[in-house]
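Usage example:
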Amino acid sequence: MPGLTIGDTVPNLELDSTHGKIRIHDFVGDTYVILFSHPGDFTPVCTTELAAMAGYAKEFDKRGVKLLGISCDDVQSHKDWIKDIEAYKPGNRVTYPIMADPSREAIKQLNMVDPDEKDSNGGHLPSRALHIVGPDKKVKLSFLYPSCVGRNMDEVVRAVDALQTAAKHAVATPVNWKPGERVVIPPGVSDDEAKEKFPQGFDTADLPSGKGYLRFTKVG
Amino acid sequence: MPGLTIGDTVPNLELDSTHGKIRIHDFVGDTYVILFSHPGDFTPVCTTELAAMAGYAKEFDKRGVKLLGISCDDVQSHKDWIKDIEAYKPGNRVTYPIMADPSREAIKQLNMVDPDEKDSNGGHLPSRALHIVGPDKKVKLSFLYPSCVGRNMDEVVRAVDALQTAAKHAVATPVNWKPGERVVIPPGVSDDEAKEKFPQGFDTADLPSGKGYLRFTKVG
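Running the assembly step on the lines above writes:
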């Protein structure tokens, strides 16, 4: 399969959407974007996912992150389906655009195909792919889930927080990190540089190798 | 970049590891495997991740899931580093093998390269990629994280539970699903078939389209 992966620039495709024509790079502009596919309109897991995304829209908005959906259904189908999504979780409004890719070319270029799923005509269907795209139009982090497993939107929010914290403070986030917890200082930063960059101080874990590479600090 | 993605068969590579030579398909056998890369030995986030994986080993074992690590460091480096990992979280033993890919060929074939990260010789380094491989040797679900963001091992456990529940009961799991919660009946199953397959019954969400596609049930 074609291989859009982390570090790659997202293709600058132009597609119809529920908000009119969208050119992906223009849509990203200088923000983060969550570009996510769903297998099909009027299907069960997708309805729960897009309703959840609508519910989390405020959280993403606070973080300056825009949402952009895509599937192979057409725009009118998306618009009709949105009534179901909003009825399923009353109060959750689908304010983000959903793109239409009836030719299935975009989902191939975006690494969003689920090779195990076909429509009634044998056409490809999208997986539950979700790429976090940075202001530089590059894929920062990807989740590739099959149609039978709904995504975890809390983990998507956590990943956005981790990416933005890492980028802002030039640090990295340890396993299972949550906002407010300690971060680590990257290996390329010497202890002397770390003292300057992190005047709040840092703790170095005492490990058998004595290499002093596991350094924790707090950032605001 | 090369594009191993969900639905693809994992390449049947043979590599040295901390447990001797490993041929990936033989290692998978008829079980699920979590195949995960880390950017480098003796680096901070990786140490927290591999210690966490050691801590979760019992959870994965209960689910019949084997762990298999990989990076570009050599086997001796892995063995030395394991002392640090185990000292960082006393009681967490690294019982899973870590493969060595000094030629960087395997990480390319496995879609585990972080194109933004290079070693001091300009060589590629792995991302924090994690593929859940099924007994059929195919990639079921992938997490592709950059070096600056540690993974969420709770989400990995949840994803394994969701995949295994979906496969066992021929159902799908809605957004943010956790074990014990309701699952959904796939669209390909008619209501009549559903009544046979799910004698415990199911609830159909009442949505404006009236299409009756969002059907919840409980499985054991």
